[in-house]
Amino acid sequence: MVDDIRQPTLDALAGKTVVITGTIADPRSGEKVARPAFQRLCERAGATTASSVSANTDLLICGADVGASKTDRARKLGVEIVDQGDVWRQLIAAGAA
């Protein structure tokens, strides 16, 4: 039955507004992942994605080669900054990736 299908949710992402910055790579293969694809994975896990850091942002997810602009703004606003690896581990463990 269709009603029995549940989307995976992650406590760390469910209900959170996240911004993704930097180069994202799948830790299993090392291959670069397009940001929109990673955003969709986060959304499947219950997050809302945004393109810029604001007072409404809960998490700034950082990949490689991150510029200072978004991280500086996140620090000023008290937004939690997390490494993409932490998020990938959660997505993989929850079956979302």
Low-confidence stretches: 1-9
Look up the CATH topology: Rossmann fold
Could you describe the largest sheet, including whether it forms a barrel?
4 strands, parallel
Q: Which whole number gives the mean pLDDT?
A: 88
Shape by Cα distribution = globular
CATH architecture: 3-Layer(aba) Sandwich
CATH superfamily: BRCT domain
Number of strands: 6
**Strand order, sheet with most strands:** 4-1-5-6
Helix content: 25-40%
Strand content: 15-25%
Structural class: alpha/beta
Using only CA atoms, what is the Rg? 13 Å
Q: State the CATH class.
A: Alpha Beta
Instruction: Note the total helix count.
Output: 3
How are helices and strands ordered from N to C? EEEHEEHEH
Oligomer classification: single chain
**Distance between the ends:** 23 Å
The total number of structural domains is 1
Structure notes:
The chain is an alpha/beta fold and 97 residues long. It has one domain (2-93): Rossmann fold (3-Layer(aba) Sandwich). Helix content is 31%, strand content 21%. The protein is built from three helices and six strands, in the order βββαββαβα. A four-stranded parallel β-sheet has the order 4-1-5-6, sandwiched between helices. The chain has a two-stranded antiparallel ribbon with strand order 2-3. It is globular and about 35 Å long. The two termini are 23 Å apart. Mean pLDDT is 88; it is low at 1-9.
